[in-house]
Specification:
The protein is α+β, with helices and mostly antiparallel strands and about 550 residues long. It contains 12 helices and 16 strands. Helix 9 (about 385-405) packs parallel to helix 10 and helix 10 packs antiparallel against helix 12. Residues about 1-5 and about 535-559 have low confidence and may be disordered.
Length: about 550
């Protein structure tokens, strides 16, 4: 029966491929031709728009650079000979446009900046205001440079926009030895920019583009809040369409953007419509076959992946189960054969059996909890608890195993008073047990584990720090995914089910907390559980962290 089925399947696949391959080839060739046409049209149109944006931006830059260079370029003698009144005369002579206020600052003395209004011929006193504060902020770095005796090899116009309400152009003045002696500046008039500079820059850019009035795009300028402050066409048309291209100004008003919207259907849109119509007809013919093929490939891929994960999971869990079972069997056989000296040795064997049983129970609980979490049936019983007691009780259950493997556990903050939290004590104990189990597994021969308790704002933080193999940065986010196993390094050599950290994250997030990890390969890892405080004190500032003394020693596990 099977032998007869194989040729039929083979023939079916051959026929399917014979139909599918030519169809795919024709579809690919047509797509390639149409896509190239569409891409070429879109690229040309995009290049035209970008060139127009660049032209407008350069027009604005040139206007302010040229204006600032012409007005603010003062001779060094104005500052070296303390002739600041001469600066006022020069400003008036040169003529000023687009500035609310001009000012000069001499760095050869500690005088305040001298302010000059464009309608006056002399400097005038100015009352303290947000504008003057912006000027002082702009001047401060230059004062520091001047006091350090800075030498400027190149002098150019600078812009200061820390306060968007008062944009300032600055021009440093140097003497013959290139030493900074003064600073001249102007506060830009925003209204002049909107009403004069922008229309001029847009008009000149469109003239360079060479388009007619009916074909020219709508140019709009948005301020930092996204409001349109200028448009060369109807505001409704400018705001109703998403810009086809936009660019921030590069020199001044850098938090403003200039955008372009075509008035009519663009060549790129026409080409795209034609492309979609033609390719849609061909795609409809192949969609059913391709869909079936993709679905089959997806199903096969999922089955292979699930099979691989199942095999790895069974292998790792079998290894995890075998270790405690072997220990239980050995010590039970010792007890059965009477190979012990006195009741103390029998009690010690019993302790080992109980510890390995707890370890086995923890592994089984992880598997059962994962099944409950995966099916959405996992529930928690939240009770107001002392987290410190939960931590100490959990450490007690690990005491024998840790002592058996030669581990030293240092507990920090066990004596610090911590407010209560509303938690599921068993779930938190399970999370801490999983972290301790990982610290033992990945110790890499290092036998010190630190468990710390502290308060951080509205959270109680339980941290487990080891000195083991560590985790690479690109793996640290993935380790909390179910079944994930680090693929390289010493971490991969340690057997595990891949469920522990996934369960930890689910438990902590169910408590409205979070779990974090800090690790470097070869230096160990620190896992921290952040649990919210259930107390009126939760809204208060974080208490000072518990400072462990330099002589911190291993504390007993009792509360």
């Amino acid at each position: 029966m099977k032998l007869a089925t194989l040729p039929k399947r083979h023939t079916l696949w051959v026929g399917f491929v014979a139909v599918l391959v030519p169809l795919l080839v024709l579809l690919a060739l047509q797509y390639r031709w149409l896509a190239r046409l569409d891409e070429t049209s879109a690229t040309v149109h995009k290049a035209v728009l970008n060139n127009l944006l660049e032209s407008i931006s350069q027009n604005v830059d040139y206007y302010y650079r040229d204006s600032a260079q012409r007005v603010l370029d003062l001779p060094a003698s104005v500052f070296t000979e303390n002739q600041l009144d001469e600066a006022a005369h020069l400003f008036k002579k040169k003529g000023v446009e687009g500035a609310n206020r001009l000012f000069v600052q001499s760095f050869l003395n500690d005088d305040e900046p001298q302010y000059f209004h464009s309608s006056c011929a002399t400097f005038e006193p100015a009352k303290w205001s947000p504008e003057l504060r912006a000027v002082h902020v702009a001047i401060s770095p230059w004062k520091l440079l001047a006091h350090k005796g800075a030498v400027l090899e190149r002098v150019r116009v600078m812009v200061e926009e820390k306060d968007p309400g008062y944009r300032i152009l600055l021009y440093p003045v140097t003497d013959d030895s290139s030493r900074l002696v003064g600073l001249a500046g102007m506060v830009i008039d925003e209204a002049h920019f909107k009403n004069t500079v922008l229309p001029m820059a847009v008009k000149k850019g469109l003239a360079d583009l060479g388009s007619g009035n009916e074909d020219e795009p709508i140019v709009s300028v948005q301020d930092a809040s996204g409001q349109i402050v200028y448009a060369n066409g109807p505001l409704r048309a400018a705001s109703g369409k998403r810009p086809e291209a936009e660019k921030p100004f590069s020199f001044v008003f850098t938090d403003w953007k200039v955008g372009l919207v075509s008035r009519h259907t663009t060549p790129a849109v026409v080409a795209r419509r034609s492309f979609l119509v033609n390719i849609g007809l061909s795609a409809a013919l192949a969609s059913v076959l391709l869909g079936g093929l993709l679905l089959a490939l997806r199903t096969a891929s999922r089955e292979m992946k699930l099979s691989q994960m199942k095999n790895e999971f069974v292998s790792n869990v079998s290894h995890e189960l075998r270790t405690p079972l072997a220990s239980i069997r050995v010590f039970a056989e010792f007890l059965r054969l009477g190979r012990f000296d006195g009741p103390e040795k029998a009690r010690e064997y019993g302790d080992y059996i109980e510890t390995e049983s707890r370890r086995l129970t923890q592994l089984i609980n992880n598997i059962l909890d994962f099944a409950s979490i995966d099916s959405g049936r996992k529930t928690y019983q939240f009770v107001r608890c002392d987290v410190r007691e939960v931590v100490c009780e959990t450490l007690k259950t690990f005491e024998i195993r840790l002592r058996q493997d030669g581990f030293n556990v240092i507990v920090e903050g066990a004596e610090t008073h911590l407010p209560p939290a509303r938690i599921d004590a068993g779930a938190i104990a399970q999370s801490l047990s999983n972290l301790l189990d990982n610290a033992v597994k990945y110790s890499n021969g290092k036998r010190d584990i630190t468990v710390s308790l502290r308060r951080d704002g509205g959270f109680i933080v339980i941290s487990v720090r080891d000195q083991g193999v560590g985790i690479a940065r690109d793996e640290q986010r993935k380790i909390f995914d179910r079944f994930h196993r680090v693929s390289t390094g010493l971490v991969h050599d340690v057997k595990g089910s891949g469920l522990g950290l996934s369960i930890v994250r689910h438990i902590v997030e169910a408590h409205r907390g979070k779990v974090t990890v800090e690790s470097r390969p070869g230096e160990g890892s620190t896992f921290s559980l952040h649990l919210p405080i259930d107390s009126p004190e939760a809204g208060l500032p974080a208490a000072a962290p518990f400072a462990a003394s330099a002589e911190t020693r291993e504390r007993p596990f009792e509360a």
